[in-house]
Amino acid sequence: VSIPSYEVKIDGKSYKTQPIEIKMLKSNAPVGQSNNIFSLQMRANKTKVMVGESLMVTVYFSLKNGVRLSQDIQYTAPGFPGFIVTEGGDKNAYIKGNYQVQEVRYILTAQQEGNFTATPAHAKVGVADRSRRDIFGMSFGTKWKQMASNALQIEVLPQAQESDLIGDFTLDATIDAQEVKANKPVNLTIKIEGKGNLENFEFPKYEIDGVTVYSDEAKIETKIVNGELHSTYSKSFAFISEDNFSIPIRTFSVLTPKDQQLKELKVNGYDVVIEKPS
Question: Is the pTM of this model over 0.70?
């Protein structure tokens, strides 16, 4: 669907909005059984990963149109032994066929090799008990209906090659000065971003003789893009010294799951000159 540009005139000047393209994606939600008021199914975007690699699991809760609930839905999340679990962002809700579908997403990062079972999700739904009516003919009471999703089998393989990170990342490092007065801070900022999980990554400390080093807590952000996990890792360091010093090079190895190739992320080294009073 295309929303065309819109033009308005204000005080004799013309202003236009930008056209907007809206792409409709096909839902992966399973179709509910016509004789069930609701269904619960679990699917993964892949069932074979390496240690350290991430996958996405989606639970689809489908409720038949027109069903009126008398109680809140009681939902129990699936279990994911052997994985670090991250909530998959905003819940997605839509209509498919004769059902209202609610997606609950989980990002799993494999911690050890082996064959693992994601245990079922469970839901309990309360609907009005139409067999019980008050003196005005209104139904009262609740009938509870329960259901469990399917389980999932996930195979975790060892890493093809040892690496510090698994994914497809880029690194950017910036330094604000390489010549400062004594005891004035030199600030270095590191940013790693790309496809994969950075939740467990920690940039190593700098230890430099004669230099005081401060650092902030790393900021890690994750989001889902086209069904895949994208992460951003940011961290800053401040270096303070009375004499010239050098910030050493830092390198990290990254294994890309798609082509099983190793690449290197590098933080350059920097020579810092301390200005002496004249």
Answer: no
